[in-house]
Amino acid sequence: MTRVFSGVQPTGHLTLGNYLGAMRRWAAVDQHRADSLFCVVDLHALTMDHDPARLRRLSRQTTTLLLASGLDPDVCTVFLQSHVDEHTRLSYLLECVATDGEMRRMIQYKEKAAKERDRGGSVRLSLLTYPVLMAADILAYGADEVPVGEDQAQHVELTRDLAVRFNQRYGHTFVVPRVTLPGVAARVMNLQEPARKMGKSDESGAGVVYLLDEPDAIRKKVMRAVTDSGREVEYDREGRPGVANLLEILAACTGGSPQALAGAYESYGALKKDTAEAVVEVLRPVQARHRELCADPAYVEGVLRDGAQKARAMARPTVDAAYRAIGLLPSVERTELMDVR
Ligand code: TRP
To answer: What pTM, to 2 d.p., does this model score?
Structure first.
């Protein structure tokens, strides 16, 4: 069976963009058609300035929201990256296969590092090596497919390069994965700056609908979305990005097509009103399930414990094989453990 791996960073509150662009599809399609793992990548959240208490809260909340959005731990594996040591064990080996030039060419690194330096801050070394840890996430599980947003495609490309290089040098060890990008309509843009994606780490939340926003907050944000000059409701991504974004959100929530929906509206106001209600309705069951799960923290803990156990069992043989292939002697302790088995 195809194996799917994806990860979410607990660096902010999850947004409508995360839900429509990825999570909804993971729950409705991926977990049923493939052997899939969804990982809250908490180690990645340490690559930028962070607050430990906030990270703990967000790691729990991100997990709970993944479950609330329909990921079923009986069908797929939901876990925290830091609970499975194989990620960092493998990451080091891959650092011995990757080059520093490769790392410095990563677009996301260049952007994030430049921003940090502009602010007068320093750049953590882990920000540079982050793509290697991401490669380890994927390769440890022999994933065939990695569903991510376009901004992560370069990292998956690097993962492929590292897998091929390792296999050529040290013998076949890793599956070479491929990226799977979501459809166009799944790209939700910031309501205030429709040229930018609706990200969970955006500084101002005015253009970002969070999954846990109250219905009235959602309505306000959608009603205040920037639209474009002009009056007719037309679907034109280049010329009218604000209106196109609303049409795409409405289409993603109701199952229509943005082109067809455009014809049904006479004014921006009516389009905003319907879009707001559609978003409120799409998020209603997710929020209800989230409330139930929050009332049962022992259940969520149990999911994470079982998830880590399942994940570890999948990753360990591959990572052990990589240790042997690269020339490290098996530790006596590990060998003995194997003999007992
Ligand atoms: N880097 C990804 C992001 O920022 C998150 C991530 C980490 C990931 N490891 C992964 C995604 C492995 C897919 C597979 O969105």
So the answer is: 0.94
Which of ligand 1's atoms lies nearest the C-alpha of 131?
1
Cα 211 → chain centroid: 15
Residue found under tokens 């990620």: 87
* 200 given a catalytic annotation: yes
Domain 215-293, CATH class in plain words: mainly alpha
Please report, rounded to a whole number, the percentage of residues in the chain having pLDDT higher than 90: 87
What is the per-residue pLDDT for 340? 55
Q: Is the domain covering 3-181+296-340 a CATH 3.40.50.620 domain?
A: yes
9 lines ligand 1 (CB under 6 A): yes
In this predicted model, what pLDDT tens digit does every residue of 195-223 receive, in sequence order?
898 988 777 789 999 999 999 999 999 99
Is 112 among the residues known to form the active site?
yes
Q: State the average pLDDT over residues 185-199.
A: 87
Token pair 């959005």: residue: 69
- Measure 7 CA to ligand 1 centroid, in angstroms: 4
Pocket of ligand 1 contains residue 15 by CB under 6 Å = no
CA distance to 7, 66, 127, 209, per residue, from 137 (Å):
8, 18, 16, 29
Q: Ligand 1 center to residue 227 CA distance, Å?
A: 32
Average pLDDT along the chain: 94
Decide whether 3-181+296-340 matches 215-293 in CATH topology.
no
